[in-house]
Amino acid sequence: MTALEVLAQPITVMPARSGAGAAVACVSTSHCTHCHLRQWCAPSGIASTDGDRADSLMFGRRRVRAGQRLYREGEPFKYLYEVRSGNLKSSLTTAQGLARVSAFHMTGELIGLDGVAEGQHASSVTALEDAEVCAVSYALLTELALSHAQLQQTLMQHMSREIVRELRMLVLLGNMTAEERLATFLLSLSQRLAARGYSSSDFHMRMTRADIGSYLGLTLETVSRTFSAFQKLRLLEVDQRHIRITDLGGLTRVGDQRAHKELH
């Protein structure tokens, strides 16, 4: 049986467990050419040129309830996940045993790359709201990519895009003030939403302020104080987690325009 034929079989899903892991379940299998994420998905290298072949690639779809984990730090790495709907976060455990948010994921983004190097996941991924992902075996996908150059290129581009974006964010945040960090974060979030057809200036944040602080290396109090400062400067209107950017130019200046361009 070839890798393509194996991929056409339903993916074996992780068994349901009690507690936090119980929320992950197989919903169904999905055809590439009928998926609204076709333009984002890693197999699009095939889907764009061979519809019949793409239709044979059925990916296991998993639903993860809000607050539940897709996978845990230290678990064996088997799958890559494409976010089909909803938002999730990645977190790492520090040497002091504390969880630190390392990334936020939204529709169309690839999750699971943290497991490629060591064969086990270096982080945990938790749903910020009810979410659904498509899962594909990394071993079978890479085997298939060996004989399909366009698929291989697309897969590598996805990997590179995720790694570079996070590395640039970490480097930039290292020398920024609290105001610059929060402004840069909001601008990056704005552009990511705009790229998916959502409003770039009026949106609901799925992460808490504590999550934002963990990601930016700021205390919860500092994040709240900085949001209040931005409101006083009339850069934003804030209603709990709902954000409306009222002065994009001003927010960009706070975040440093040159640094913001580097993120993209």
Properties at a glance:
single chain, 264 residues, alpha+beta, Jelly Rolls, Arc Repressor Mutant, subunit A, five-stranded antiparallel β-sheet, 38% helix, globular, disordered N terminus
Summarize the structure.
The chain is an alpha+beta fold. The protein has 10 helices and 12 strands. Helix content is 38%, strand content 23%.
Describe this structure in words.
The structure is a single chain. This protein is α+β, with helices and mostly antiparallel strands. It folds into two domains: 3-151, Jelly Rolls, CATH 2.60.120; 174-262, Arc Repressor Mutant, subunit A (Orthogonal Bundle), CATH 1.10.10.10. It has helices at 3-7, 44-47, 51-55, 138-145, 149-173, 178-195, 209-216, 220-232, 248-255, 257-262, and strands spanning 25-31, 58-64, 69-71, 79-85, 88-93, 99-105, 110-111, 124-127, 131-137, 202-204, 236-239, 242-245.
As laid out across the biggest beta sheet, the strand order is 1-2-9-4-7
Topology-level CATH name of the largest domain = Jelly Rolls
CATH superfamily of the largest domain: Jelly Rolls
Number of H/I helices: 10
Total beta strand runs: 12
Structural class comes to alpha+beta
**What is the mean pLDDT?**
78
Q: Would you list the SSEs in sequence order as H and E?
A: HEHHEEEEEEEEHHHEHHEEHH
Number of separate structural domains = 2
Q: Spans of 5+ residues with little confidence (pLDDT < 50)?
A: 1-25, 42-57, 258-264
The major pleated sheet works out as: 5 strands, antiparallel
N- and C-termini, Cα separation: 41 Å
Shape: globular
CATH architecture designation of the largest domain? Sandwich
Tell me the fraction of residues in β-strands, as a range. 15-25%
Give me the Rg, rounded.
19 Å
What is the helix content? 25-40%
Text of the CATH class of the largest domain: Mainly Beta
